[in-house]
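Below is how a single chain appears once it has passed through the pipeline. First comes the sequence as given, then the structure the pipeline wrote out for it. We keep one example in the README because the format questions we get most often are answered faster by looking than by reading.
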Amino acid sequence: MNGSYDKNLDLNLLRLFVIVAEAGSVTAAARRLYLTQPAVSAALRRLASAVGAPLFVRAGRGLALTARGQRLLASARPHLEALVEAALSPAAFDAATSERTVRLGLSDATEAWLLPSLLRALAEEAPRLRLVVIPVQFRTVADALGSSAVDLAVTVAGDLPAGARRRALFMGSFVCLFDPRHARVGKPLTLARYLAHEHVIVSYNGDLRGVMEDSLGVQRRARVSVPSFHSVGAVVEGSALLATVPRIVAREITSLRPRLRAAPLPVSPPGAPLELLWRSAVEDDEAIRFVRDLVTRVAKALERPARRRSAPPST
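Resulting structure:
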């Protein structure tokens, strides 16, 4: 940068000058600019004074550029066009080089199975893009979106603020997680056996109620409630406790703790779609769109093998 920016030159005068040069007369330029002829003439005089040389001479009923005016037009026109293009065109997003930071809301269940694979995909496709993960769940995600605390989120959701966008990823379901060395659940797991065991319950309310109590009215024998799914595997392993967890979370837990098993529930709570949610204000943001599409692709790829493994064997 040099001292030229400190000089007192109204850049609007350059735009007016280019339009007068293109129109060939003050009258025609005034019509294009929605100005009066005296206003255009006065502006040209100010620019000529700033430049220190006349820019036009009369030629019949119109104007012709002087040599100084021709040089100024050759320099000013491409720069003005570039400025307009830069102002009106969105900045191009390059996933390979972008250093954007995206605020992603994840429920604790979603974080456990989605985040590792999402980060691996980002390392390959957008190695400089950064994520800030914000904890959300179905009771808090609407406020997080409405207050712009997150750019997008992945969770089960209910009502959303006006203008929020949503995309269903897949329908969630639940299974019973247990340690077969200590919990004798039988095959199949009956409701009587399920209720006879003690349970670890995931409760977002800080009480002893979870998805089975809230959706089905089934009252389990709660030994402990925890605020998230992060500790469920460690609590169940080595104990006779049962845990009711999302099917895809059970897959992640059993991959890390292979002694644990997952069994179909004797009664299943209603399934709820896991959704990708985002604010309408970032609908056209190329970086956010890239992350949305990547989350969708990764989530669906993770869900497919889980669905195949949970399907009954063919006969």
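Confidence is low (pLDDT under 50) at residues 308-315.

See the next section for the split statistics.
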